[in-house]
């Protein structure tokens, strides 16, 4: 599956524009993390783009989230490492992240949401108006973007990255596609 086909699959399965933007942000972050960590940039990016493919169908049935996506992707013949990362990103009991790509997707999933929330609370409401320090200050505010699981984000340590570096890599990647994200 190439990126064009993957994006078509996303758009045919995901109805919420903001969720598609989250998936694009995750794709950009995963590519940047792969580049930094010596992973396969296209493969990691594909995992980021496809990771919430089943969200419309599993939004109210979280135990199936990721599993349904994995089934869809397996039927499409998608690379097994990508399928595994997508399946592992919710970290369901009995199927936890293992590989660096798994841990990157698991950790970056919540971080992209926190970064978007940080940009939206800034007076300019633009990704390019914020920096790593700004995001780190928001990270420390427990009530800010409460849905962004800080413990999940901190698992970037499994990649050998300090939290601040992880935030910087992700923020820069998201800033590079800010027009696509509408921020």
Beta-strand fraction estimate: under 5%
Quaternary assembly: single chain
Q: What is the CATH C-level name?
A: Mainly Alpha
Number of domains: 1
CATH architectural designation? Orthogonal Bundle
Structural class: mainly alpha
CATH topology name: Hypothetical protein af1432
User: Uncertain spans, ≥5 residues at pLDDT below 50?
Assistant: none
Order of helices and strands: HHHHHHHHHHH
Taking the sheet with the most strands, its summary is: none
Tally of DSSP helical segments: 11
Q: What is the general shape?
A: globular
Rounded Rg: 15 Å
On the 0-100 scale, what is the average pLDDT? Answer: 97
Distance between the termini: 29 Å
User: What is the tally of beta strands?
Assistant: 0
Helical residue percent band: 55-70%
Q: How would you characterize this protein structure?
A:
The chain has 183 residues and is mainly α. It has a single domain, classed as Orthogonal Bundle (Hypothetical protein af1432), CATH 1.10.3210. It has eleven helices and no strands. The protein has helices at residues 3-13, 17-37, 41-50, 55-58, 67-75, 80-88, 100-121, 132-140, 150-154, 163-176, 178-181. It starts with a helix and ends with a helix.
